[in-house]
Design a protein that fits this description.
alpha+beta; single chain; 264 residues; DNA/RNA_pol_sf; 3 domains; three-stranded mixed β-sheet; 7 strands; 8 helices; two-stranded antiparallel ribbon
């Protein structure tokens, strides 16, 4: 339990009980002992207090039109005491879950980056938010989409047509269609470029726009931390470390998948 308390993130909004992580971390030994007794009782009885099952749902605006619901991201504010219990349970499950999770599962697992999936052809999907389906013609694409929808339904998932985009790749400009395409009675919007796993992909398969996007993102990161870089109290070594950990990671994200020519 002490480890779970130490791992609590600070400067976070409280749940329904208005108790913050800072309060628990700086609490007296008596309070922590009582919390330990409560968690042990929950562990034995396998029954959690009803208050811990309540979460405050807050919507955060991401970008785009503020009048559209899909441009908001929902977060749930939970009680800190529940976070401690869930952290303890998570540690118990980690060793077990690593044995049963497939090699195709990335993202939330340690030492498995999402970027590694850029080079992987997925044949097993248990849950997803971003999938790139590639086919040589519309007939093959229709077959793939039909199979994807069928397999998703088997595990309780549903494909959202509003979030699906269609893009035609070709070395010839005349074949780079940005018109919509109709598959199984559903029309999908055609686009010239899209974001996949944080990377900008264009229908001419060039990386110029993606590189410019990375440079602009690096500039934004620099100006957001410009007060630190201009601070005379920070040594040059610390500023170099900040540059490597803040700016370089932003600029070089996805560089493994770039096709770099001599001109670039």
């Amino acid at each position: 339990m002490e480890k779970a308390i130490c791992n609590l993130k600070t400067n976070k909004a409280a749940g329904e009980d208005n108790i913050t992580a800072e309060l628990i971390k700086n609490a007296s030994c008596e309070l922590k002992e009582r919390l330990h007794v409560l968690i042990c009782k929950i562990w034995r009885d396998e029954k959690m207090p009803d208050d811990w099952k309540v979460g405050l749902i807050v919507s955060l605006f991401k970008k785009g039109n503020k009048m559209r619901c899909e441009n908001y991201r929902g977060i749930t504010l939970l009680n800190v005491a529940y976070k401690i219990l869930s952290s303890i349970i998570l540690e118990q499950l980690k060793e077990y879950s690593e044995k049963i999770l497939g090699e195709y599962q990335y993202g939330f697992r340690p030492r498995r980056r999402t970027m590694d999936q850029t080079f992987v052809r997925l044949t097993q999907i248990c849950g997803y938010a971003d999938i790139l389906v590639i086919a040589r013609n519309l007939s093959a694409l229709e077959a793939l989409c039909t199979e994807l929808g069928r397999e998703a339904g088997r595990v309780g998932l549903e494909v959202s047509p509003n979030k699906i985009k269609y893009m035609g790749f070709s070395a010839s400009p005349s074949w780079r269609s940005v018109k919509g395409v109709s598959i199984n009675g559903v029309t999908y919007e055609g686009v010239a470029e899209l974001i996949y796993l944080g990377m900008l992909i264009s229908n001419d398969n060039s990386v110029e726009k993606e590189i410019q996007k990375r440079i602009l993102a690096g500039n934004r990161t620099y100006f957001a931390a410009i007060s630190l870089f201009r601070n005379r109290l920070l040594s040059r070594a610390n500023k170099i470390l900040l540059c490597k950990t803040l700016i370089r990671l932003v600029v070089s994200y996805g560089a493994e998948a770039w096709t770099i020519t001599k001109k670039r």
